[in-house]
Specification:
The protein has about 210 residues and is α+β, with helices and mostly antiparallel strands. It contains one helix and ten strands, in the order E-E-E-E-E-E-E-E-E-E-H. The protein has a four-stranded mixed beta sheet, with no helix packed on it. Strands 5-4-7-8 form a four-stranded antiparallel beta sheet, with no helix packed on it. It starts with about 70 loop residues before the first strand and ends with a helix.
């Protein structure tokens, strides 16, 4: 199947759950992480949460009580990826006090090419098997919050990717296989509290000198 995004420009693999993404300029994960795929690979059975066995009629790797992701919906459940395709579910979010970002949308590039239109929350991306460099940013008055990860995708496999925009419109975002912390949060709190206090002190300074 033809890959519309072309080959990835990097070769760092997606880490296993619980480990951070490799960022540009950092060494690749140590052995034990996912290796880049060199061809069609059989999908290993996914571990079950809490040690529960797989229930009849549920898709492989789907935890009990959770509906599979997909698009378009099919009744109470969502459709699986098309045959021969894998799936990336990008979950994008921002700091609660940066609610102005709700008026803007995150942007995605895949292997250097413009990706699908994204929204805050979950964006489902079906892709042919392969390795993809996924870059996410915020389309504000200018682009900021860039974050990059290289993600391998297998046929029939769903890979969850979490992106968190920075608290202020500068610097980089965070991206990883688990929900991410807010970047620049400490700097944001210093600016939000320190600047008003400094202005008040400067305003009262002439009164104190009388």
């Amino acid at each position: 199947m033809t890959n519309p995004y072309g080959p990835p420009p990097g070769n760092q693999p997606y880490p296993p759950p619980g480990q951070p993404y490799p960022q540009p300029g950092q060494p690749a994960p140590q052995p034990g992480g996912y290796a880049p795929q060199s061809g069609p690979q059989p999908m290993p059975p996914a571990p079950q949460q809490g040690g529960y066995p797989q229930q009849p009629g549920m898709p492989p790797g789907q935890p009990m009580g959770q509906q599979p992701m997909g698009n378009p919906p099919m009744g109470p459940q969502m459709a699986p990826p098309p045959p021969g395709m894998g799936r990336v579910v990008l979950d994008s979010s921002y700091f609660v006090l940066a609610f102005i970002l709700a008026l803007f949308k995150p942007g995605i590039t895949i292997n250097g090419q413009p990706g699908p239109v994204a929204t805050w929350g979950k964006t489902v991306i079906d892709l042919p098997p392969g390795q993809y460099q996924i870059q996410v940013h915020v389309n504000y008055l200018w682009k900021f919050g860039h974050a990059v990860a290289v993600v391998p995708v297998n046929a029939g496999q769903q890979v969850d990717v979490y992106y968190k925009a920075p608290a202020i419109a500068f610097g980089e975002g965070n991206i990883g296989p688990v929900p991410q912390e807010v970047p620049n949060l400490a700097l944001t709190l210093v600016l939000a509290i320190g600047v008003p206090v400094l202005i008040l002190l400067l305003g009262f300074l002439p009164l104190l000198m009388m």
